[in-house]
Amino acid sequence: MKKHGSVLILSALLSAGMSEPGRVPDEMIDLPVVVVDSEGVEHRLRGLVCEGESSLELRKGTLRYRIPLRSVDRIEVLEADDPVKVKVRMRSGREDIFEAERGTRCSSESDTGSVTFYIDEVRTIRIGVKR
Predict the structure, then answer these.
(1) What is the pLDDT of residue 78?
(2) H-helix or E-strand spanning residue 100
(3) How far apart are CA 4 and CA 89, in angstroms?
(4) What pTM did the predictor assign?
């Protein structure tokens, strides 16, 4: 019984880790997004969630920030090390530098299907740009 119970728990954990990215919330679904990946390829997308949320969790010093993606104009990856150093420009024009977990996974939609990427795989993310 112990052996079968362990197999079931392991299977559940593996399937949870490989689950599909979170659904894009209604307030984000039509928001145009342009992602430039680390190779310089531009991707025109719509909607954006990171870690299944419509906000991005970042750190500055010892404090954690949760920044709504809808209020962000641009995210620029300055260093792709661990932790990833990013510069965030808000729609208000304010800019600040934060750290993000290297494994932060974001997802979006394109005309050809779903797109998933890690924050350290991109150069810039522009949110709310005109198509």
Answers:
(1) 98
(2) strand 95-100
(3) 51
(4) 0.79
DSSP character at residue 128: S
Tell how far CA 93 is from the center of its chain. 21
Hunting for tokens 């750290």 — which residue is that?
99
**Per-residue pLDDT tens over the stretch 8-20:** 343 443 334 444 4
Amino acid letter, 121 = E
Q: Give residue for tokens 């119970």.
A: 5
CA distances from residue 47 to 66, 87, 122 in whole angstroms, order as listed: 18, 20, 16
Please check the confidence at residue 80 and state whether its pLDDT lies above 90: yes
The contacts of residue 100 (CB under 8 Å, 6+ apart) are 56, 57, 58, 59, 83, 84, 86, 119
pLDDT of residue 9: 40
